Structure formats: C-alpha cells, structure tokens
Amino acid sequence: MPASVLFDAPGPKTAARHRLYTVIASIGLLLVVAAVIAQLARKGQFAYDLWEPFVTPNIMVLILEATFDTLRAALFAVLGALVLGVLLGVGKLSDHIVMRWPSWLFVEFFRAVPLLLIIIATWYAIGAQSGLNGFLAVVIGLVLYNGAVFAEIFRAGINAVPRGQSEAAYAIGMRKTMVTRIVLIPQAVKIMLPSLISQAIVALKDTSLGYAVLAPGLTYTTREISRTFNNTIQTAFVIAAIYIVLNLILTWLATVAQKKFVGEKTSSDPLAAGVGVSAL
Fold first, then answer.
1. Fewer Cβ neighbours under 10 Å: the N or C end of the chain?
2. Contact yes or no for 157/189 (Cβ under 8 A)
3. H/E element, 85
4. CATH number for the domain including 74?
5. Which DSSP string corresponds to 257-271?
6. For residue 171, what are the domain limits?
7. What is the C-alpha separation between 165 and 167, in angstroms, rounded?
C-alpha cells in the first residue's frame, strides 16, 4: 500500500477494526431505514391510492416531459458555465490588471451569493412569468454561479501543473498564450476533470430550485402532482429516485469520457508526469 504524508497505512489489526466499524455502521443504517419504513407503513403511506398517480399514463408523460426539461436546463447551464469558467479562469491568470481584477470580482461575487437569490433576481429582471422566463432564469442563474466555480477549478488546475512544464516551454521560445493552450491546459484537464464532473452533478441537482420561479422541470411538475393528490411523501420518493438515476447516468458517462480522453494514469505516474517535458 502506498505511503501517505497525512497518515500511516493501517496495519492488519487496524484494517480489521475498520471492517468491524463498517459492519456496525451498516447494520445501524439498515435499522434506521427499517424503522422509517415501519413508521411509514403504520401511517398508511404505502397505500396504493397514494402511489397510483405515478403509474397513470398521463402523469407518467408529464413526469417524463419534466425530466427532459430538467436535463435540457442542466445541459445548457453546464455548457454555458464551462465557457464562462474558462474565460474567467484565463482572466484571473492574466498579467493585465484590467482583466484580472474584474474576473476576480465577478468570481468572488457570484460564488458568495446564494444560487436561489441569483435565480430569483434574474427572474424578476427578465420578467416574473412562468414557462420560458422561469427556464431562462434557472439557466442564467446556474451559468453565473457555476461559471464562477468552474473558473476557480480551471485556475487551480492550471496552477497545479508542475512549474517545470511552463518553464521548459518558455525556454524554447513559446509565448504565454501558447504555453497555456498547448502545454498547461491539456495536462490540467486531467487534474480538473473529477472536480468538473462533481460540479456538473451539483448543477443538475440545483435545477430543482426552478420551482421557486415556476420553471418547467421535475420539482415544479411534481409539486403540482403532490398538491393535486395530497401525496407529498410519495412524490418526494419518486423525484429523489429520478434524480439519483440521472446522477448515476451522468457519473457513468463522465467516467467513460475520462477513461477515453484522459486515461486512467494517476497524477503520481512518473510516465504521465513526464509527458509534457518529453514532448517539449
């Protein structure tokens, strides 16, 4: 087992204790889940009438359309946030103060303001109406917030590339833009990808805030269903299951993309670390 600078590798006895703790925690979690299920059963929450709407064709079509609306909002938001994040990240790394300071202020402001406030403010700015305006408010809010987060991920990924890579590029006469585009970014992608994937999943989940601005999507549609059939708990279970499935699919797709375009070498792989130098 590789050594760690933070803690010693566990020995046989410690590993055995960890397995025991895992078993105990798993049993405790199962007992809690069983207690919750038993309580729901006593309250009659598993009655067929409360779950029947979710197997009704018309309701299923509504939920399917709402799922597509949610995915569309997440897709537009992530793509827009990636573009904005790259621009802001480059701005924060710029040597020119007229680019660096505005980028810094933008990032710090939208990282500090709660996302729900951004979405609501955007909604009132473009017109407080349901439908398209609500959808645009969610997408714009997600782009602004996640763009600021992506900018920090991009900046940190660039700075995490060993300094020798850029120094070697400068030594052969490359300009800063060429160094960033040809040397730093390809290597930084490997460092940034896990964080980008995690933030994309967060953006997908944050589309649930669209209910506050009457945006078409899962939370708004299912809220209307729960109000109609008075089955809030059942609706919560269904929407949670849908989001879990969507996140699992997104994680799987991202993992496939990572293996295909980046590879499975870790940053500690000496061959991977030497690619940029040998290429120069």
1. N
2. yes
3. helix 57-93
4. 1.10.3720.10
5. HHHHHT-S--TT-HH
6. 48-279
7. 6
